[in-house]
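Summary of Year 1 activities. Much of the first year was spent building the evaluation harness for sequence design. The harness presents a backbone, in tokenized form, and records the residue chosen at every position. We chose the following record to illustrate the format because it has been used consistently in internal testing since the harness was completed.
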């Protein structure tokens, strides 16, 4: 867009007001712009030159102004405090701020010696409608043409005349897209119209094409948080497994201690019973007959009658004596204990479990937990001593699918 209009004080001369085509330029910034122009700009002046003091008074001390704030300070001294918010930073920092906020950058190159500079700054840039529109929709940045980063920006944007404004979008760390250029003086309404059309036609496209750093940061934060949650979940699972193992080992230790106590108690009771029977037998043998001559042969007959079946009765009782304690843990957590002979087979244990008629057990197998070993149909004929169950063992019922 370009327009020509006559301005007061121009002696009828038609002033050129040029607004170049939208998004027509892709400007590659010098490396010095992105690195602070350390090599391409003149040596920085560290302070402003104050006005000469009245004669007879000593000069005031120099006022030190950082180079990044030189434009801001010079513009405010010239036009007052009512103006758009210009970022007082390097151009690269302004680009990063625009990327974070999802906005375009409004660039103003200030030529303090141009005759149209003061009317444009006071009448257009400082107008309320322009100030409000720029602050709401752009990241505004300015530079003096012959100070700081100004020469580098002039070389990159190559303005045809002043005042000069441009709307740019960050493309990469080394280049920007010049979406709009406004050259020469324009009124506040014209500038707002140009900027509004630029946002509507090109702003959304460039914002969608520029990587959203906030979204990338949010994605990285979500990924880090998910990794931390996964790590905490893994540690919780490991702690739970360790606690379960410790509880199982403690339960096994208690079961073994209880079984050992029961075995010792049973042995002590058997020993006492045997001692009582022995004592009774001795007491019976010591009884003397009242008539020795007549009944001398009778005790022998009685002894023969009682002694003859003794071997037949004692042998079966010895074979059927329960000397192996088997503790069985059911799937619901209950326990059942049964005594077997060490010559019995594992089939007798299965028959005992079947006799319990446990609800919902279905097909199952017996398992020894530590060390883990399964006793299924192939081990049915194995004796309890051969299986290592003597004198005690704890078995688990493991349901089969």
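For this record, the design step produced the sequence shown next.
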């Amino acid at each position: 867009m370009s327009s020509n209009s006559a301005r007061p004080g121009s002696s009828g001369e038609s002033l050129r007001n040029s607004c170049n085509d939208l998004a027509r330029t892709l400007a590659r910034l010098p490396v010095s712009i992105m690195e602070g122009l350390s090599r391409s700009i003149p040596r920085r002046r560290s302070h402003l030159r104050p006005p000469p003091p009245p004669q007879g008074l000593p000069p005031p001390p120099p006022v030190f102004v950082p180079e990044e704030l030189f434009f801001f300070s010079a513009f405010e001294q010239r036009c007052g405090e009512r103006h758009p918010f210009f970022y007082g930073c390097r151009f690269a920092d302004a680009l990063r701020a625009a990327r974070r906020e999802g906005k375009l950058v409004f660039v103003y190159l200030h030529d303090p010696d141009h005759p149209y500079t003061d009317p444009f700054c006071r009448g257009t840039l400082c107008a309320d409608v322009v100030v409000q529109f720029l602050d709401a929709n752009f990241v505004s940045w300015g530079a003096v043409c012959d100070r700081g980063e100004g020469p580098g920006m002039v070389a990159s944007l190559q303005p045809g005349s002043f005042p000069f404004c441009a709307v740019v979008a960050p493309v990469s760390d080394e280049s920007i897209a010049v979406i709009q250029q406004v050259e020469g003086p324009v009124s506040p309404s014209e500038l707002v119209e140009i900027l509004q059309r630029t946002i509507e036609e090109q702003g959304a496209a460039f914002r969608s094409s520029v990587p959203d750093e906030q979204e990338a940061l949010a994605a990285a934060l979500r990924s880090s948080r998910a990794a931390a949650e996964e790590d905490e979940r893994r540690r919780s699972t490991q702690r739970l497994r360790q606690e379960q193992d410790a509880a199982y080992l403690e339960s096994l230790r208690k079961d073994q201690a209880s079984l050992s106590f029961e075995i010792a108690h049973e042995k002590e009771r058997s020993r006492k019973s045997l001692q009582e029977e022995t004592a009774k037998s001795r007491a019976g043998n010591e009884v003397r007959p009242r008539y020795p001559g007549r009944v001398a042969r009778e005790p022998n007959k009685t002894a023969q009658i009682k002694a003859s079946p003794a071997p037949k009765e004692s042998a079966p009782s010895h074979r059927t004596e329960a000397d192996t304690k088997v503790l069985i843990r059911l799937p619901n957590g209950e326990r059942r204990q049964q005594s077997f002979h060490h010559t019995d087979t594992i089939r007798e244990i299965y028959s005992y479990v079947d006799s319990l008629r446990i609800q919902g057990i279905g097909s199952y197998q017996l398992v020894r937990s530590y060390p883990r070993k399964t006793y299924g149909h192939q081990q049915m004929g194995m004796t309890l001593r051969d299986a290592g169950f003597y004198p005690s063992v704890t078995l688990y019922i493991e349901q089969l699918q």
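The domain at 247-270+321-401 is CATH 3.10.20.90 (Ubiquitin-like (UB roll)). Quantitative recovery figures across the full test set are reported in Table 2.
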